[in-house]
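Lab meeting, action items carried over

1. Structure of the two-component assembly. Owner: GW. Status: complete.
Input record:
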Amino acid sequence: MEGIISNQIRALRFHNGEMSQAELGQRIGVTRQTIAAIEAGKYSPTLEAAFRIAHVFRVPLDQVFQWHEKGTP
Amino acid sequence: MPYREKTAWLSLIAMVITYGPYFAIVSSGFYTREPMPGMHQLALFAAISIARLILLGIGYMLLAGTTAKEDRTPPDERDLAIKRNSMTTAYYVLIAGMIYVGCFLPFTTRGWTIVNAALFMIIAAEVVRESVAAVSYRRQA
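Predicted assembly:
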């Protein structure tokens, strides 16, 4: 079963005082380029990094990342 | 361009511009009349390897001078994932090359041809590793 992972990191950064990619990266222990790649959907983070991102924004994991089956809206 | 992508391109370019001419020279038949053990070929390979190390040293110094210190961070999970992926691909190239060199070439040729074929397969695997890393960084940029 193929799927697509989307994320709300850009919106969450905006709602958290326009947090920069570099700051988010620093807080979860990855580079700014990795945050940019995750945000653009070009890299899927490890489960631990995903939980860390959710922890930084103080929201559940499914508010940061969503999984959709390919072909469904 | 991130620091790690620059280092991947640097390694790739250094390898191509040093070992490229070496394999061009040995495949042209320049050393074919030299009797075994053919120390001139070995000396050429050693010189080329040293030239590559010098080139890499200069390249890393230039990169260190032009890249901000905060950008030269230890590898994160994406860097490690790219490394794993490139190493896996290079491993298959190396295994295929070594099967060819070890299981087929001894029946058709000998001496420096086998040595150079083995060296070529090792360098090819390294080129594949650096290429996969550089392309992965580019695609995720």
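2. GW to write a short summary for the group page. Key points so far: The radius of gyration of chain B is 18 Å. Chain B touches chain A through eleven residues (CB under 8 Å).
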